[in-house]
Amino acid sequence: MTSFGNFVEIFLQALTAGILLGAIYGLMCVGLGIIFGVMRVINFAQGEFLMLGMYFTFYVVAAFNLLWFLGPAVGPYTGALLAGPALFAAGYALHRFLVSRVTGISVAGTEGEGHYAQLILTLGVSLVLQNGGLILFGSTPVSVRTPLSARAWEIPLLYDANAALFLNKARAVAGILSVMVAVALYWLVNRTRLGKTLRAAADNAAAALYMGIDVDRAYRIAFGIGIGVTAIAGGLVATYNPFQPYIGLDFVIIMYAGVVLGGMGSILGAFWGGMTIGLVQQLSTLVLPTQLQNAAIFVVFLLIVMVRPQGLFGRATERI
Amino acid sequence: MRAQCKLIAPLLAIAIVAMAWIAVGMLVTNSYYQLMLTLVPIWAVMGLSWNLLSGYTGLISFGHAAFFGLGAYTVTIALVGFDVTPWLGIPLGMMVGTVAGIVIGYPTFRLRGHYFALAMMAYPMALLYVFEWLGYQEVPLPMKREAPGFYMQFSDYRVYIALAVGLLVISLLISLAIERSRFGMSLLAIKQNEPAAEAAGIDTLAWKMRAIMLSGALAAAAGGLYAVVLLVVTPESVFGMLTSAQALIVALFGGAGTLWGAPIGAAILIPLSETLQAQLGDVIPGIQGVVFGFAIILVVLLAPEGIFWRVRDRFHRTRAARKVPAMAMAPRVAFGKTAPVPPPPERTPILTVSGLSKSFGGLRAVTDASFEVGEGEILGIIGPNGAGKTTLFNLLNGFLPPDTGKVVFAGRELAGLKPNRICRLGIGRTFQVVRAFPRMSVLHNVVVGAYATTTNDADAFAAAREALAQVGLAGRSEAAAAGLTNKELRLMELGRALAGRPRLLLMDEPLAGLASQEIEALLDVIRSLAKGRITVVIIEHTMRAMMRLAERFIVLDHGRVLAIGVPDAIVSDEGVIEAYLGKKWASIRAHG
Amino acid sequence: MLTVESLTVAYGGLTALCEISLVVRQGQFVSMVGPNGAGKTTLFKAISGTVQASAGRIRFEDTDLLAVARSERAHFGIAHVPEGRQVFGSMTVMENLEMGGYPQTGRRDWKRNLDRIFSLFPVLAERRAQAAGTLSGGEQQMLAIGRGIASSPRLLMLDEPSMGLAPMVADLIFERIGELHRDGLAILLVEQRVAEAVQSCDFGYVLEAGRVVLAGTHRTLLADDRIRSVYLGL
Question: How large is the angle between the packed helices B113-133 and A114-137, nearest 10 degrees?
Answer without folding.
Answer: 40
